[in-house]
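Researcher: Structure for this, please.
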Amino acid sequence: MSLFSQLHLLPRPFWVLVGATFVNRFGVFVVPFLALFITRNGNTAAQAGYAVAAYSLGGFVAAWLGGWLADRLGRNVTMAVSSLAGAACMLAMSQAFDWRALAILAFITGAINEAGHPASAALVQDIVPPEHRVIAYAVQRFAVNLAWSLGPAAAGFLAEHSFFWLFAVDAATSVVFGIIAWVFLPRGNRTAREHAGWGHAWLSIRANKPFLALFGACACMAWVFRQTNTTFPLHFERNGLPLHYCGLVLALNGVLICLMEVPLAAGLRQWSVKQVLALGYILMGASFLVFLVSGTLAAFVAMMVIFTFGEMAAFSRQQAYSASLAPDDMRGRYVGFLSFAWCAGNTASSALGMPLYDHHPAILWTINAVLGIVAAVLILFSRRPKNP
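Model: Predicted structure, token format:
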């Protein structure tokens, strides 16, 4: 089946979600530059790390609350409320300067803003048949990364003039997404009250060994991925490179994904899911070893290219693989539980990675590579699931 034929089979509500996601993700201006915003207000790198970690810590609340709301109230309601409330929180965070106040606001913002993600992933599972999910997630990531290729580049220029505009644009795009979700997207599957609790989901999850292995792998990769938003821009600045170049190098990630991931997902449909995932994880972790050799602009570009090829190999397959392991009536909670892994990895990466970078960057780059290998091993040696 041709790529065009695969795309034609995706349902109309999916394309509405893709368009809304593009608008929302274009405006994700704050997170990539949050560490710099905090340090430029007189706080240390370690204090910035704690504040960024607080945002990730809020994701634990988001995973628990968002997963339950997605199954109980519906996907579109959860996404809308999360986005609209998150916009208000983002504006409030723009007015804080002390790292302690920023940490509190970042926690609240993370808890609210991230609560819509389980609903978004579960809605894709609701409306797209299993045989088309790999290409659907690749298309969704195309939208996210097209926005990512444009957004950070614009954010880098805005950050050189006023950090406030990063928060303002981020909030505005969240409002647009919330309105579209409320008015134009379906509610998706809903679970009866007596079966919507986390107790039922946990009984299923703890017996699902492949899903628990994926949980461990995602925790490792969350640590690695968070470094692109924390130590990466700091390392860029400390090597004497202009900040607007940092935005352009980050945007390269999105450009490569937009050009290559959808055709790559279509071309690799028959390949082993677990082998492709493992290869992607190893490439993502190993990409940071480039910094052991050089801190030039070319080194940052090379690192981002290697990292992006790993991401393209892993992430579309990871989402479809996760979907294949979740019962139909627990999709929101399964996605939410997997978000716990990302929250744990993100929080540890922000809180420990930044001080470790201050102490000895080479150790941090090596840890990233080791975690990529650990994630690959977890996937390769888990029990073989059904093919997504």
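Researcher: Any notable elements?
Model: Residues 12-380 form a domain with the Growth Hormone; Chain: A; fold (CATH 1.20.1250.20). The chain has a mean pLDDT of 86.
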